[in-house]
# Entry
Amino acid sequence: MSGSPEFGRVVVFGVGLIGGSFALALKAAGQAGEIVGFGRTLAALKRAADLGVIDRIGVNAGQEVADADLVLLATPVGGVSAILARIAPYLSDDIVITDGGSTKGDIVAAAREHLGENVARFVPAHPIAGAENSGVTAARADLFRGKRLVLTPLPENPALAVEKVRSAWAWCGADICELTPDRHDRVFAAVSHLPHLLAFALVSELAERENSDEFFGFAASGFRDFTRIAASHPEMWRDVCLSNRDAIADELDRYAARLSKLRSAIERGDGAALETLFGVARAARRGWAGNQESGDRGQETEKYAARSAGK
Amino acid sequence: MSGSPEFGRVVVFGVGLIGGSFALALKAAGQAGEIVGFGRTLAALKRAADLGVIDRIGVNAGQEVADADLVLLATPVGGVSAILARIAPYLSDDIVITDGGSTKGDIVAAAREHLGENVARFVPAHPIAGAENSGVTAARADLFRGKRLVLTPLPENPALAVEKVRSAWAWCGADICELTPDRHDRVFAAVSHLPHLLAFALVSELAERENSDEFFGFAASGFRDFTRIAASHPEMWRDVCLSNRDAIADELDRYAARLSKLRSAIERGDGAALETLFGVARAARRGWAGNQESGDRGQETEKYAARSAGK
# Structure
């Protein structure tokens, strides 16, 4: 039945970049009957409605969820617990819930706490579609197209629930792979959370110097690319740090040890050690960029997903 | 006399990205009578000659320099001392020497040591035109066009020598400003050398993990931009580290202190401190990007140059 959307009512909590783009993508694919938005400020929700991102502004979350087919949790990670507690009593047996958070361990813990057995309806997800811009005005239907989406199903999830959520993200055009929530948090602490912290640290340190203008005045293209992610959303990254605390602290320790090794080599004038370390980095970075360009990313993803699932 | 080039013979030591682009730019501007290249391998010099980047491969450095108007030192910083020692006895009163090194303090010290009074002929320079690619095949006539060039004149330089060197870089299309050598090294340790080290450190640390493929497999656009400079030239950056050792060690210490502050905030779950730090970084990064786009970089440069010169 081509005219009939896969999901009747879709409820989106947090209509920002991620939530708004999810709504737009499902609508563009003709797979959402109606989209109801909840958020922290009425102004933002009105903007979302004016832009046609949502069909209605939600009033009673319990009521809306009770008749919904799909719920997306897309607020900053810190706000998810309260929403889960609020909607827990209203979940039907057919509903599926997913999210767009950058960390998975703590959201899974919150879901187990608040949803009880109904945690089986929650299939966590992490769309890898970061952007420095945030808010509903930055939302677009193609944000997830061709981008990685990491699904982290729970042992409690029935296969049908996983398939429904997978299908929703597939309608958004995402390239879907799977990891366990724990493995997800370890991997992203290293390749995403840590680099963000390092960029925030560099820029904030320079900004707080007395003569910061002089320093910024001579920063060039290397600095520009290195620090692009330092313009990311402070509140979102605060929540990422708090919710993936242990893995991030571990990554920071490894990194500090590496910097200290580098500093010793510089201190003792050990050119050979420096050249070796830089050479390892250059080769790895070039190899990575080559893989990205040659488009075998999808295969690698499947490989890692299979490996990870086998653990 | 429009047909007559400003410089008769130009001798380039190190015909790679910087040296090759300098040669191509001066020729394109019609301001070099002939360009003679020296380098470490005959193969690279032959390639430079085949590409038309240089007119001749030099044989006797003393002889070539004796009749030259302009010398560019564009080898990795570590090779400069030996070249200065070799050409020192052959410098005429009219010759000017400049360089393209990323650090200035140690090259000035080497020049004072080897050139004696003739250090007056050496006007150090640093073109801010980094690229991950290196070698003569990456050279192009417009590499310096619209890019910052920091001139770091010495107290010994007569005004005419500074003007000649300034003119050579101006023919390359560079946007020229001035700093003292010492100030240059402090500023670039913070906004260039440190970010390179941080990117090298991150990528090398990940590359040396047993399961590095899995990590790289999930790295996305934030990682891509953050680590672009980790593909930079290992030998060049080895020399930068060794030659700007003190300023870089100082920057690493400041940075390590900032990371440790960040780690404590994460450890104790201090969301407010994290959000503040990230907010400072985001505002500074956005302000910087805004300045870059609005094109008031040139004015800022002049302002900083004037300030720095007044110190």
In short: Residues 296-311 of chain A have pLDDT under 50 and may be disordered. Chain A touches chain B through 97 residues (CB under 8 Å).
